[in-house]
Structure formats: C-alpha cells, structure tokens
C-alpha cells in the first residue's frame, strides 16, 4: 500500500535513544488519510508520539467499509525500497500485482508479504467482483542495512500457525510467539500476531522482555493491561514485559506488534526508506524517470507520481517523540 500524502512528512526513525525500557501504557490516536479513490485509512505509525515499534515503521488500519456499490481499494502502481509490506485482511480481498511478475489475491487472515529490497513497484486493488465489506491493515517493516539491497520478492502464505488458549486464538503473521513461528521471511527479531478473543476472555499472553510492543485494536471492546482500547487505536507498551494481560468485553480482535528496538537511524519519506537525503532523491528521480523499479503489468490505470521533495535536506536523527 502506498503513502498517498501529497505532502508527506519525513520521518526520522530508529536508534535506541527514545525506546522506553520499561512497561508503559501510551495510547496512540490515529490520523485519517485518504487512500486512492474511495478508501480512508487511520494511520497509527508514524505517529506524533511514536515513530517505530521494533522494525515496524508504518501501520494503516482501514474499514470495515461497505464497498458493495464502490470500487473499493484502487491503488495504482507505486514504488518501494528498503522495507517489507505486510497486507492483512479481516474482510474482503485485495489483488496484488508487482514488478517481479507476482499476481495474487489476498484473502482474510492470509499473509501477503512483499520484500522491496533495493527496488520494487506494485499495485493493490479490490477485484471487480468483490465482497461487500473491506477491513484490514497495511504495515511496513524496515529492513536493516545489511539486507536492504536484497533482491525484491513476494510471498503468499495462506496457512499460518496458531497459538491457542481458552478464549484466545493467535495467528502468527511474522516471527515467533510462545514457541510457534510464522513461515514469513524476517530480517530482524520481530513478531506480528492477529489475536481473536471471545467475550469475557481473560488471558495473559507470553512476551519477550527484550522486545518493545504495541497492540492495535481491529474490532470489539478490549482492555489491554487494564487500558480500554477501541477499534482504530493503538496502545504502545514499551519493553520489559514477560506477559500481557488481555480482557475482552466483547468478541474482539487485536494485532500484536513487537520486536527488538531498531538501532539504525533511517529516513522514511513517501514510499522509500533510506539513510541519506541523496539516496531518497535518487530513488524519487528513478521512479519519475521510469527506471530501476520495474513495471507493474495488468493494472488498469496510471502510475502514481512522486510528490515533490521538501525544500530542506532530509536527515536521519534517530527516534524522535
């Protein structure tokens, strides 16, 4: 999914200087952003209060939207570099195309994982004949320097492992949770899981104390470590936790995101993650000149042009709150 802001704000991310080394309860409010022709998303990361959670650096939550008489998601070809995109659905379908030749329909609770590496382009759209409702999240994972120039590739995992407990079913999206590991490729110590809770469930989820965590509420009413979290909001939890208390006031669904704090400093601008102003500028120029990022074949619509760069140089400054 693209960051379609016409005036994207550069995000300076990474570094351990502002990582909270103890458990906290920091509620993050979303910012509404128009995506494509008919989809509005709630952007949780980057946020004025928090830029990253481990290597997770971008989180959009959208829906549930009634698109029975709408085209649904229509995001034309656009570029990425230096990151992975994670497509995650609760309702609906998204048709993914990319410049490596991938063509895949992603359905609810299937993992669509695109590693941009040095350069890739892709499009996302609701199929012409689609389900009535669209509800999901789009997330980005920053690639560390040693892997950010890898070959671009796409993975689709229709079957993912589960962690279960009374009142809880956790689908492993990425990484490892309670000894169970997702088949999705990762490049840093990280975890992503979709948590389904039944009404009145009261559980404690085991965590790694070296990771920092956040929880995104997808639906329902839940208390996370005693804090009410409503759909479309995210609770940042800090580090140092060995478990996480969860109580469902109704049937509910959450996304758990975590990982080792990302040490490297980086710049995130538009759909690029780099390390210098020059690198970002070169990537923008390459996209506008139809170079380097390849061609997305089969999408019925134009490529998305890159916005103008800001008038001042972009500089990586580490984590900023």
Domain count: 1
User: How many strands?
Assistant: 26
Mean pLDDT across all residues, rounded?
92
Give the CATH level 1 class: Mainly Beta
Radius of gyration using CA atoms only? 18 Å
SSE order: EEEEEEEEEEEEEEEEEEEEEEEEEEH
In angstroms, what separates the terminal alpha carbons? 25 Å
**Architecture per CATH nomenclature, i.e. the level-2 architecture:** Sandwich
Helix content range: under 10%
Globular, elongated, flat, extended or rod-shaped: what is the shape? globular
Topology, pairings included?
Layout: E1 11-13, E2 23-28, E3 31-35, E4 39-45, E5 56-66, E6 74-80, E7 83-91, E8 94-98, E9 103-106, E10 111-115, E11 120-125, E12 133-142, E13 153-157, E14 162-165, E15 168-177, E16 180-181, E17 190-197, E18 202-206, E19 212-219, E20 222-224, E21 227-229, E22 234-238, E23 243-248, E24 252-259, E25 266-269, E26 272-274, H1 277-288
InterPro entries: Pirin, Pirin_C_dom, Pirin_N_dom, RmlC-like_jellyroll, RmlC_Cupin_sf
Biased composition (Pro residues): 304-314
Pfam family, one: Pirin
Describe this structure in words.
4% of the residues lie in helices and 47% in strands. It contains 1 helix and 26 strands. Strand 20 and strand 21 form a beta hairpin. The strands form 5 sheets. Strands 2, 14, 15, 16, 17, 19, 22 and 24 form an 8-stranded antiparallel β-sheet that branches. A 7-stranded antiparallel β-sheet has the order 3-4-5-12-7-10-13, with no helix packed on it. The protein has a 4-stranded antiparallel β-sheet with strand order 6-11-8-9, with no helix packed on it. The protein has 321 residues and is mainly β. It has a single domain, classed as Sandwich (Jelly Rolls).
């Amino acid at each position: 999914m693209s960051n379609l802001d016409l005036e994207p704000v550069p995000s300076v991310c990474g570094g351990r200087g502002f990582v909270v080394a103890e458990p906290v309860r920091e509620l993050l409010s979303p910012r509404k952003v128009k995506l494509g022709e008919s989809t509005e998303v709630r952007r949780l990361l980057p946020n004025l209060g928090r830029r990253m959670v481990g290597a997770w650096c971008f989180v959009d939550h959208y829906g549930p939207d009634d698109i029975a008489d709408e085209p649904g998601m229509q995001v034309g070809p656009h570029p990425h570099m230096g990151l992975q995109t994670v497509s995650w659905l609760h309702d609906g379908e998204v048709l993914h195309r990319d410049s490596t030749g991938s063509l895949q329909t992603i359905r609810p609770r299937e993992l669509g994982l695109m590693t941009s590496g040095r350069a890739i382009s892709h499009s996302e759209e609701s199929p012409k004949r689609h389900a009535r409702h669209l509800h999901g999240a789009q997330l980005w994972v920053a690639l560390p320097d040693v892997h950010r120039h890898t070959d671009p590739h796409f993975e689709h995992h229709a079957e993912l492992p589960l962690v279960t407990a009374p009142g809880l079913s956790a689908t492993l999206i990425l990484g490892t949770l309670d000894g169970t590991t997702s088949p999705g490729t990762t490049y840093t110590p990280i975890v992503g899981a979709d948590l389904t809770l039944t009404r009145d469930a009261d559980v404690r989820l085991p965590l790694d104390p070296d990771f920092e965590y956040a929880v995104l509420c997808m639906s329902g009413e839940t208390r996370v470590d005693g804090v009410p979290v409503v759909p479309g909001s995210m609770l940042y939890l800090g580090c140092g936790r060995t478990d996480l208390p969860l109580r469902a006031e109704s049937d509910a669904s959450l996304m758990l995101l975590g990982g080792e704090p990302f040490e490297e400093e980086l710049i995130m601008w538009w759909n690029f993650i780099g390390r210098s102003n020059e690198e970002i500028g070169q990537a923008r120029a390459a996209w506008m000149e139809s170079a380097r990022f390849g061609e997305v074949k089969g999408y019925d619509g134009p490529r998305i042009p890159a916005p103008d760069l800001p008038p001042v140089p972009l500089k990586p400054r580490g984590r900023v709150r």
